[in-house]
Structures are given as C-alpha cells and as structure tokens.
Design brief:
- By secondary structure, the protein is α/β, with parallel strands linked by helices.
- Helix content is 29%, strand content 17%.
- The strands form two sheets. An eleven-stranded mixed sheet has the order 1-8-2-3-7-4-6-5-9-10-11, with helices on both faces. A four-stranded parallel sheet has the order 12-15-13-14, with helices on both faces.
- Strand 10, helix 7 and strand 11 form a beta-alpha-beta unit.
- The longest helix has 17 residues, at 327-343.
- The chain is globular.
- The relative contact order is 0.14.
Length: 376
C-alpha cells in the first residue's frame, strides 16, 4: 500500500481498520493485519497502534518525511518532540539492544538498570541521540525519548516493520488522548492510513518520561512507573514542577514530550475539585451551583454513586469513573470519561482530584494540564 499523502492530500486518505486479537497473534487474521500495517510503515505511511498506555500514531522514526506526516495529521507544533518506540530483547547480562544502539551515542549505567527492570513497559528514557535520529523527532534537541512498549501488538508490529517508530498519542494535538480505536477514528479518520484495533489500552495514561543523565534524575512526565519504583532501582529522582513547565504556546523546543501546559483537554471547561472522599460531595455540589445554568458533567467515583449531590448535579450527566480507593481504575478510565462527557455536549465537567502519591500523581498531572485554560 502506498504511504499516506502529505499536506492537503492528507485529508482524503482512506483509513483502514485492521483488527487484531492480542491474545492470538499467531492466527492468519492477526498476522495478515500486522504484515499490512508493517508494510505501510516501511513505505512511509501512518499507522495508529495500541500500546499498554494509550494508542499511538506511528511512523518510521528514521524517515523525516514520514515523521512530518505525524505533525500534519495531529496538527502538532514542531517544537514538541516525539517518543521513539523500539522492540527487541533486553538481556540481563548485556548492555546491547540492536534497535536501540544505532539511535543513541551513550546510555548511562542507571539507564541500563531501568531498562532491565521496566522494559518492555511504560517508561520512556531521554538519551543522547545519534545522527541517525532526524531533527524533527527531537525538535532539534540533543536527547531522544525512547521506550519499548509492552503491548504484544505494538511490540510485534515494530519487530515486523524492522524500524523504530516515532509514535505520539493518536489524537489531534492538545485533545484528550485515545485509549480505544474508536477514539482514534474520532480525531484522525481520513488523515492516516490505518488503525490497528486491539481493544482498550491497559493503563490509560501515557508513559513516565525520565531523564537519567542528571543527578538526581528528572521525571518530566509522571506515569504508570512511579518515582518510588524508579528510586528503588536507580537512586535519587525528582519530578519537574509546574513552576518551570514551559508555556504550551511558546515557540521553542520543549525538553521532553508531554510537558506543555495545555494537553489532554476536553472541549468542555474542566473544573478540578480538591478534597478527601468525605469532603468531595459538598465541594462538588458547591462547584455545581456556581455553574448550574450550564450543561454539567461529573467524573463520579464509585463510592459516591448513591450520595445526594444536590439539584444541579442530579440534573447533570455522570460518568462512572471507578473506585476512589483504586487509582489504577481512575487512570484507566480517565480519558474515556472525559471523551464520553464531551460527546454528551457538556459545557462544564467537574472532576475530583485524587490525593497525591503513586499513579495518582500521573492522574493529577494530566488533569492540571487538561484544565489549564479554564480551571478554578
């Protein structure tokens, strides 16, 4: 199949849906879909693929023209770098990974420890790039973000394509990240060549992005791999604070993917509500009264399903978010919930903020960025 057309022609591509059962990759149907997707990628086209975090939009990372099509399809600014995804064995007794070695000039010892522990998995490492990595991938910066996805479909697609894949989230830039194939079609149908549909993503939030080249190491974006997990394996680590995040409108290269202040955002105005579980009903009701003339939606924890939230919220639209006591459930359903309430034409979405710690740090990070232009 020919590669995706570029520029104005990119809007009239016939986007294929290639279904794959990740539990049965050895079937003829799965292998046929994977082979077709791999051929599209080798030809310079765009394929949305499932990962354990969210759906990504993949292109051959070594082909600058192919990567440029990602920016066109997503309407992504050139100053926002892209993570490169690789596949291959991570040996306990070796520092060599065949698909990684040509992409980097150096790998710190702590990075090897992290790879052996967390790869394949939702950890992106910022490493010194080689000349093989096009400037467009890193926004001209000296470090390239690299990870090895754990999703069997993503891993096998990269292996069959035989090239590393540049793959940001498969959505329009700044919009809610996609956790299902349907979400991808909502944003990118007609703009990319194909979507590999393997069902919902597992974690629901993007990978942790870590710079292991400094001491202490720096987490630029929290994710499913937490600071404590990293600390136990590789030593001191800090998390980038909001105070030094660059403004998303700045026309300069960002230091890492996912650090712009305006990201993951619904069309509705997102209002964040802080408090303990016992305090949330009153605080949500208060926020609802302030916006009672608008169409309200609420991300509602399971523990509050039978709580009287007052008239404005009773008249609003609820999304059953998951158990407050199980932050992983909240992470898995976060983007699906924001998209569902957007689809109901809510003007305002009220969302409780989980208490900090572990995976909740990643949820809080995404919600703050999603609410940046209109939070209270």
């Amino acid at each position: 199949m020919a590669a995706a057309a570029s520029n104005s022609e990119n809007s009239c591509v016939k986007t294929l849906r290639l279904k794959v059962d990740s539990a049965h990759l050895d079937t003829h149907e799965a292998q046929s879909a994977l082979a077709q997707a791999a051929q599209i990628l080798r030809a310079g086209g765009l394929v949305a693929l499932p990962t354990e975090t969210v759906y990504g939009l993949g292109a051959n990372a070594l082909d600058a023209s192919a990567v440029a099509r990602i920016f066109e399809a997503k309407q992504r600014p050139s100053w926002d770098p892209i993570i490169v995804h690789i596949a291959g064995p991570v040996a306990q007794n070796s520092t060599s990974i065949p698909m990684l070695d040509p992409l980097v000039t150096d790998v710190p010892a702590v990075a090897h420890d992290l790879m052996r522990t967390f790869w394949p998995g939702p950890l992106t490492l910022l490493l010194p790039r080689s000349a093989a990595v096009p400037d467009i991938v890193t926004a001209g910066r000296p470090l390239v973000g690299i990870r090895m996805p754990a999703h069997p479909v993503a891993f096998e697609l990269i292996r069959q394509a035989g090239v590393p894949l540049a793959a940001p989230s498969a959505n329009v830039f700044g919009h809610i990240s996609p956790t299902t194939a349907e979400h991808v079609f909502e944003d990118l149908d007609g703009k990319i060549d194909a979507v590999l549909d393997a069902g919902p993503a597992k974690h629901g939030l993007e990978s942790t992005v870590l710079d292991p080249n400094q001491n202490p190491m720096m987490i630029y974006r929290p994710g499913a791999i937490t600071a404590n997990q990293i600390r136990e394996v590789a030593g001191p680590v800090e998390t980038l604070t909001d105070k030094i995040l660059p403004n998303a409108s700045a026309r300069e290269a960002l230091p890492s993917p996912g650090v712009g202040l305006r990201h993951y955002a619904p069309r509705a105005r997102l209002i964040l509500v802080e408090g303990t579980l016992s305090e949330l009903p009153g605080r949500l009701a208060e926020a609802a009264r302030a916006h009672e003339r608008q169409r309200l939606g609420v991300m509602l924890p399971a523990e509050m399903a039978n709580v009287d939230l007052g008239t404005p919220l009773r008249a609003g639209i609820e999304f059953a978010w998951g158990r407050w006591s199980a932050p992983q459930e909240l992470a898995e359903k976060l983007y699906a919930g924001l998209r569902a309430l957007d689809a109901q034409a809510c003007d305002v979405i009220l969302c409780p903020m989980p208490e900090a710690g572990g995976i909740a740090d990643a949820i809080r990070d995404r919600l703050r960025k999603a609410a940046h232009s209109g939070s209270q």
